[in-house]
Amino acid sequence: MTATTSPGTTPEATPRPRTPPAGGTRAAHRIFMARELGIALALVLLVAVTTAVNPRFVSGQGRKDLLLGATILVVLAVGQAIVIITRNVDLSVGSVLGLSAFATGKLFLAMPDAPIVLALLAGVGVGVLCGVVNGALIAVARVPALVVTLGTLYVFRGVDYSWAAGQQINAADLPGSFKGMGTATVAGVPVLALFAVGVLVVAGFYLRSYRSGRELYAIGSDPAAARLHGIPVGRRVFGALVVSGALAGLAGVLYAARFGTLDAAAGNGMELNVVAAVVVGGVAIFGGSGSVYGAALGAVLLSTIGSALPVLRIDPFWQQAVVGALILAAIGMDRALAARIAQRLRGRRARGA
């Protein structure tokens, strides 16, 4: 049978039934929400078991230590999540943290009465400059992010070592008000943890409520299709890397406030923990899905594991083994969920056709 059309119409202009993508989007959202809930339940279970062994684990000081231990990792994980959502990665965050922390210490050595706000701005500024270098090479020069940030990891660390020249800044060299920020609390919550909460809320709101934030997911899902739809891929990726650098710079200032003693090795190797926290938190390593809230939960979980294992008298070796197993499980789950969502979308399109 030959298809017919009414006068004045062409086969191309005939409306064709289409299945809205909202169903698949809602399904993906429900699945990743379930993953984040699973991470939260695992965290609660870990804390409960550790508390049963040693009730002081969640005492007043214990809770404060747990929050402080997770703060810096959460700030770094939020920035890393934004980058990974775009199908890129920033391996230089540990070096940026170390450079920013040492720059903060040098600022207070030169200006002992400098306000804390100036130190925060200086640390974030150092991070922004590093992020601009990464973003320019990745988004403008089109060099793969893995190659660029692996190189800048060593470049920024080399700058830090050259600048420090073996010097160590001690806590006694820092102003009391700045060191007090590292131990101060508000309603029992450490001030440094409030910085992490603020960063998390702002980043989550931006990704969910602003078009440019949602475009990051489109870029991570399919960069070529995003370009065809008019999304400025290069500009968005550049911005994501600058944000990651800025948050790494902020984390460096928080590191200086918490530990006080600073040298060129600050933050060494932290980038691997950050990527692990993001992946365990449900952000797909291949981009396009996940949330900063899940990344923050992953950071808190990994930090709590590090604090709980000594209490449970488990060899520290197993911490690395557990983290590795969680990463492999998270990646495997990402692939399984992606296949399930794709199958569900194909079924919907077939029914709609």
Observed structural traits:
single chain, 353 residues, mainly alpha, ABC transporter involved in vitamin B12 uptake, BtuC, 13 helices, 73% helix
Would you write up a description of this structure?
This protein has 353 residues and is mainly alpha-helical. It has a single domain (31-46, 58-337), classed as ABC transporter involved in vitamin B12 uptake, BtuC. It contains 13 helices and two strands; from the N terminus they run H-H-H-H-H-H-E-E-H-H-H-H-H-H-H. It has a two-stranded antiparallel ribbon with strand order 1-2. Mean pLDDT is 85; it is low at 1-25.
Short description:
It is found in: Cell membrane. The protein has 353 residues and is mainly α.
Distance between the termini: 19 Å
Order of helices and strands: HHHHHHEEHHHHHHH
CATH class: Mainly Alpha
| Residue windows where pLDDT falls under 50 for at least 5 positions | 1-25
The proportion of residues forming helix, as a percent range, comes to over 70%
The main sheet comes to: 2 strands, antiparallel
Number of domains: 1
CATH architecture, by name, is Orthogonal Bundle
- Beta percentage is under 5%
Averaged pLDDT, please?
Answer: 85
CATH overall fold name: ABC transporter involved in vitamin B12 uptake, BtuC
How many helical elements? Answer: 13
Write the SSE topology.
Blueprint: H1 22-53, H2 60-85, H3 93-110, H4 116-140, H5 145-164, H6 176-181, E1 185-186, E2 189-190, H7 191-209, H8 211-221, H9 223-228, H10 233-259, H11 270-280, H12 292-311, H13 317-352
Antiparallel strand pairs: 1-2
Helix pairs in contact: 1-12, 1-13, 2-7, 2-10, 2-11, 2-12, 3-4, 3-5, 3-10, 4-5, 4-10, 7-8, 8-10, 11-12, 11-13
Region (Disordered): 1-25
Subunit structure: The complex is composed of two ATP-binding proteins (LsrA), two transmembrane proteins (LsrC and LsrD) and a solute-binding protein (LsrB).
Organism: Plantactinospora sonchi
